[in-house]
Design goal:
There is one protein chain. The chain is α+β, with helices and mostly antiparallel strands. The protein has two domains: 5-226, Rhopdopsin 7-helix transmembrane proteins (Up-down Bundle); 239-398, Alpha-Beta Plaits (2-Layer Sandwich), CATH 3.30.70. The chain has 13 helices and six strands. A six-stranded mixed beta sheet has the order 2-3-1-4-5-6, sandwiched between helices. Strand 5 and strand 6 form a beta hairpin. Helix 2 (36-54) packs antiparallel against helix 4 (73-84) and helix 5 (94-113) packs antiparallel against helix 6 (118-141). The chain is rod-shaped, with a radius of gyration of 36 Å.
């Protein structure tokens, strides 16, 4: 079968231009990421290189630029990958990429300028192209962010295939087998590899863009979920999420008894007025940190609003809850915002939940106990028993810190 080179080149140019146009249209109409423009540029430059080769017989002066545009593809694609994976920068400097491209091109250019034989020129070009594709495959396979993905493995396979084709061309050139049927078959193989490379690059660019978009959406969803569930200032569950978590623990059959504590900062408004809202915010952060450091894994803490917090203690009686309150206050003693001007103290209301009692009912009884702790002078923990309509206040323990 005789090979009509202009027809092959025309097919390659059409395929490359189509793939480049698809990528350009996607980049103009959809969100893309750092590095995408380099991939588009690699496609257009490759198409232009093939177009210049189409006229090399009538305009030989176009050949140097055409070969440069054919050689650039693995390096420009790699430049885009480096930018796409900027968070995992390679230890190999990017300057080495361009140095290798320049070296490969200058070796061929020197051979062409010296009017070397066709075999010598083909050998110089094939050797440079083979080296660049192998280098591109090696660098892509070392990219931590992408090397486990199927798309990057496909691109590495294409790079290796291009290197193999150029290696065969190099062997034929060195053995003076670049003319005749073998040379024609190699030209056909080179054209097919160029077309396949361009199509794979379209697929890869779109897949990587889609994967990055999905990853960003998942991260945004997690962030929004965090903001919806967690009080940003204190980093404990907000009122709604505390209710959800505590209800889930109770419905899962937490080991009885379950104790609920409600507490707040004594004279918190006075702290804000005396030291400013920044100091008040810092006080809440320190309180929340002491709570987190004092609880077990099954315990559930939350900020109900303002300076008011609640803690559900599964499998815990009132006596042990008093100990937990004392532990929180002891930790807070080492984290005072302004111990001289505004020492922090806490008041606790503690109730043991009845069988079948709802969380809201228990919170109301705990609020009654907290009010009693305030009435008794603050900086103490008070336990409440009985029903909400007829509360009975039991143990009242001073927590050692002096309120304002």
């Amino acid at each position: 079968m005789s090979l009509h080179l202009p027809t092959l080149m025309t097919v390659c140019i059409a395929a490359l231009a189509t793939s480049a146009a698809v990528m350009t249209l996607h980049g103009l109409t959809q969100r893309t990421y750092r590095g995408y423009g380099w991939w588009v540029a690699a496609q257009w430059l490759l198409a232009l290189g093939c177009l210049l080769h189409l006229f090399r017989d009538s305009s030989p002066e176009l050949l140097p630029l055409g070969n440069l545009l054919l050689l650039q593809w693995p390096i420009v694609v790699l430049a885009g990958m480096r930018r796409f994976c900027l968070r995992h920068a390679s230890r190999v400097p990017q300057s080495l990429d361009w140095l290798l491209l320049a070296l490969a091109y200058l070796v061929w250019l020197a051979t062409w300028a010296a009017h070397g034989s066709l075999a010598a020129r083909v050998a110089a070009f094939a050797a440079g192209a083979c080296a660049l594709h192998l280098y591109g495959a090696l660098m892509l396979s070392r990219m931590v962010e992408l090397r486990e993905g199927s798309t990057i493995k496909l691109l590495v396979s294409v790079e290796l295939s291009c290197a193999a084709v150029q290696a065969v061309r190099l062997g034929l050139a060195l053995s003076d087998g670049i003319d005749g049927a073998a040379g024609d078959r190699m030209l056909l193989a080179s054209g097919l590899v160029i077309v396949v490379s361009s199509l794979v690059m379209v697929y890869l660019a779109l897949m990587l863009t889609n994967e990055r978009s999905e990853a960003n959406l998942r991260a945004m969803h997690r962030k929004l979920r965090y903001l919806a569930d967690i009080d940003v200032l204190t980093r404990v569950p907000n009122r709604r999420h505390f209710h959800e978590l505590a209800t889930r623990v109770l419905e899962a059959g937490a080991a009885p008894p379950c104790t609920l504590m409600m507490f707040d900062v004594d004279h918190f408004k006075r702290i804000n007025d005396l030291l400013g809202h920044a100091a008040g915010d810092e006080a809440l952060r320190q309180v929340a940190r002491c709570v987190r450091d004092s609880l077990r894994t099954p315990d559930v803490a939350g900020r109900l609003g303002g300076d008011e917090f609640a803690v559900l203690l599964p499998g815990t009686g009132v006596d042990h809850a008093m100990t937990v309150a004392t532990r929180i206050v002891a930790r807070l003693a080492d984290r005072q915002v302004a111990p001289t001007h505004a020492p922090l103290s806490l008041s606790f209301g503690i109730v043991q939940m009845h069988d079948g009692e709802s969380l809201d009912d228990a919170l109301r009884r705990a609020d009654q106990a907290l009010y009693e702790a305030k009435r008794q002078g603050r900086s103490r923990a008070v336990a409440a028993f009985g029903l909400e309509a007829r509360p009975v206040f039991g143990e009242s323990r001073s927590l050692g810190l002096t309120s304002l």
